[in-house]
Amino acid sequence: MSLTCQILASFLLIFIVSTKGAAPENNVVWGTLGHDFDLNISGFQMNDNIDDIRWEKDKTLIARVKKGKLKDLKDERYNVSTNGALKIKHLKTEDSDTYRVVIYKIDGKNVLDKTFQLKIQEEISTLDMFWNCSNRNLTCEIKNGTNPELILYLDGTVLGRAVSKTISQKIAAKKWTTKRSMSFNCTARNEVSEQSRGVTINCSEKGLDIYLIAGICGGGIIFVSFMTLLIFYINKRKRQKSRKNDEELEIRTRRATAKERHRKPRQGPGPAPQNPAVSQPPPPPSHRPQAHCHRPPPPSHRVQHHPQKKSPPPSGAQVHQQKGPPLPRPRVQPKPPHGATENS
What Cα–Cα distance (Å) separates residue 6 from each residue in 18, 19, 96, 199, 218? Predict the structure, then answer.
């Protein structure tokens, strides 16, 4: 035999020897917190040949039935039924432990030796479900329960599952529809209890479809843009029209000014007054001209006296221009005689 085969045979022999005397696995049983619990012995039938039944917790004797009489009770919450099962009242968290039962016949023969692993869980409470039609979100939760598993269904199809007290699932748009009612079901369970609740959701009146919302938003944006452009266009036309009116008014003003300039040279001057002194405004009272003293002219400027000619009355235009009471006529200085001028 080769060395490899010898080594392999040695390992197999060691494995068989080590596993031959191994104790069988404990039977795991589950109890509900706060409830009464019976630790039954499966496959055992009570008869008159049974003499002694012993129950141990973590290798400590807690209850015993000897010749049909109950004795050695560790706690008043413990009891042994007529079929040999251990009864525990109002399970507590500390009751979770390893339990062993040993049964003997009258002749002292060991009939049964069995071990149990008791685990305790809190019962699942009532389920609560919440949903939001706008974001297509569904939530299922419980208040109490040890190690719960939550499963969410839509029309019998699993949507999601979670090992927690709350499950929140966002439903896909193709599944979340507002055109019909949707049936959701939530199930919460653990090893000792199970709760389930179903709801029918109809979001046709509670929310708007995403496409409708997008259409409304797009239409609003287009409308606002159109109104903005329209207002801008109207203001621009008003400015252009106002500018055009200002230019037309300026052109008309220039034309009117040019016509007035052409008309002024053609108009003849009015009749000049023969006596300019008459048309002059009267001086103020304090500055009235005083009569000049008559001085004889020099010999070279002596002229003959001629009768003074009266000035013609002012023309109608001049009379029309004067308003108010008639103005006093200024005194006219006498002219030198004509003869004196000639002699000089």
Answer: 19, 20, 47, 68, 83
